[in-house]
Amino acid sequence: LGFSKGIREIGGNSFGATGTSFQVGGLYRMPDHIVVGASVSPADTIRASGEPDQLELPGFNQPILKPTVYATGIGWIPNRFFKAGFSLHYIAATANTALLADQRLAIGNYATVEPRMGASYVFAEFNHLKMEFAAGSYFEPTRIEGGKNRIHATMGLEINPYFGNLGAGIDIAGNYKNVM
After folding, report:
1. CA distances (Å), origin 2, targets 18, 24, 70, 180
2. I want to staple 75 with a disulfide (CB 3.0 to 4.6 A). Which of 16, 85, 119, 123 is the partner?
């Protein structure tokens, strides 16, 4: 069960709305430390806020549509320190999935498949401290008409002292960088 929030801001106006969503899935442990799984996250709509629209960009305060996502994957966990996996995410077609500055562009008119792979390694584990490094990659097919597909490289470091959780992550692709 999840909580969705959509915030649309333009000029001095801010339009916010919330909703709920869910995801259902399952895992099956096979011999030789292999795990297979599948999940589905149904389409969802975060409604437009009840506030009147503004004049800068008419139609800006509209619902945000999230497409149905089917995922399946396989993982290998040979011990408690290392794990690796591969998955495919099928993202269903939903026209006008996101808001863009140019409303003439079609968004989400066709389904896409997104392959992902990665691995993680616990390089330190003590009574009250655990440190883990992860790296991976995924192919992002564009959902924007005329947009470019791109390959992402990701890395993360997680440090868990006692009961806390500290982490850093990066996701890099052509004309894109997300650092947390």
Report:
1. 11, 11, 16, 22
2. 85
The average pLDDT across 23-27 equals 97
How far apart, in whole angstroms, are the C-alpha atoms of residue 45 and residue 98? 11
In degrees and rounded to multiples of 5, residue 55 shows phi and psi of -95, -20
Contact 7, 16 (CB under 8 A): yes
Q: Indicate the pTM of the whole model.
A: 0.81
Which DSSP letter does residue 57 get? S
Per-residue pLDDT tens digits for 109-160: 889 999 999 999 999 999 999 999 999 999 999 988 888 999 999 999 999 9
Cβ(21)–Cβ(66) under 8 Å? yes
Kindly report the CA angle at 174 between 170 and 176, in degrees rounded to 5?
45
